[in-house]
Amino acid sequence: MKKFILVFSIFLGIQISAQQKITVWQKGEMPNSKGLKLNIIEEKEGRITQIQEAELFAFLPAKEERKSMAVIVIPGGGYRHLTYDLGGYSYAKWLNTLGISAFVLNYRLPTSPDLKQRELGPLQDIQAAIKLIRKNAAQYGISPDQIGVLGTSAGGHLAAMASNISTDYTELKGDWSTISTVPNFVILVSPVIDLGEFAHKGSRDNLLGQNASQQLISEYSMQNRVTEKTPPTILFHAQNDNAVPVINSILYYEAMIKNKVIGAMFIFPKGEHNIGISNKTELTDNWKKLCTNWLDEMGNK
């Protein structure tokens, strides 16, 4: 019996270390907050609709297999909820099989009653998360210069914001202010990009409000923010995506070409808005192999 307890304790310790929870903001440093005390609301398993503050969940491969690269996974959910399991943990576990450390970010949703400025909350959280991972890279056995982001759906929009908005909104002081908030590379899966004609209306309304001005809509349509400084980016989308039209990825890639940003785009005939770790067709499932090869190239730069 004692032997069983010992083995179980060791196994539990391994599980905890593999999925460590990290608070993004130190006490008193979280900006854009009214100071409200909020409960975590989970509408159903794997979907959170409200959190108090941003959290990272670390998934680390064994040290012997760990590469210097790390990816922050940004779940989608239309900026209304966080699909942290299917759109977060599943990607993190897959990345671990490649020897890549992964950190799933549960960010403050723009619908939170605690936010003073709704559209800045998620951006502040991903920027702070990038800074935090970079500053503690040695602790995790990774390189601060190989930190990427992977965003799905609305999480793809947030990943694109982090890629193209270099203004630091974290309000962090001291040596924190010298750490870049821009990722080194980006993976966008079925991303929300345009908030105008081709918008996923729910994402736009939740991020900007239902009566957003055309100026604000244009400002947060990420194809308009791409520059020559946008990090290398790979995009995956399905032609028959009825939730987020494939033109979103096309517009972003066109902007990348115009600005000579290194990258690639793959559009599959099927997959709908469900490109993920498990896919209905073998052709669509190839996105993982393509992404793996691309990550290898990024790691060898």
Structure write-up:
With about 300 residues, the protein is of the alpha/beta class. It is built from 10 helices and 10 strands. The strands form 2 sheets. The protein has an 8-stranded mixed β-sheet with strand order 1-4-6-5-7-8-9-10, with helices on both faces. Strands 2-3 form a two-stranded antiparallel sheet. Helix 3 packs across helix 5. It is globular. The relative contact order is 0.12.
What is the 3D form? globular
Read across the widest sheet, the strand sequence of neighbours is: 1-4-6-5-7-8-9-10
Broad structural category = alpha/beta
Mean pLDDT equals 93
Rg of Cα set: 19 Å
Helix/strand order: HEEEEEHEHHEHEHHEHEHH
Proportion of strand residues: 15-25%
Unreliable segments (pLDDT under 50, ≥5 consecutive)? 1-18
Please give the alpha-carbon distance between the first and last residues. 52 Å
Number of strands: 10
Q: With helices defined by DSSP (H or I, 4 residues minimum), what is the helix count?
A: 10
Assembly type of the chains comes to: single chain
Query: Percentage of helical residues?
Result: 25-40%
Major β-sheet, in short?
8 strands, mixed
